[in-house]
Amino acid sequence: MYKNALLGLLAALAVFGAGWGAAGWLYYSPRLETAAQAITTAQAAAARQKASAEACEASVGRQNVALADLRSQLAAAELEALAARQAAVEARAERDSRAQGILAETTPAGADVCQAASAAFDAELRRERGLK
To answer: Contact 126/132 with Cβ under 8 angstroms?
Structure first.
């Protein structure tokens, strides 16, 4: 009798355990599938974001290279402009000096002013052309 009661109790526990397991499976299975889908979706989104970040990083790298190139071009242009300015200042000083020399020339006493101016002009042209 105890044996039958024990077997009945074990059978009831087995049925109860199977029911409990089935109920747990029915309850948790859809949730696990939803969680697995969410993980798959999150992994795909993470992969897309990683690819986007890598593309942005590559773009920033190219822009940094271009910016460095522009900076070096700017530095070279500034040096060239400085040299051109210095050359212009020196050329101006030389021309100013020559102009002051021409202005300092005097017409000899008793000479015709027009002929003296013409001679001075011709002499200046010869000096400019290196004919002397």
So the answer is: yes
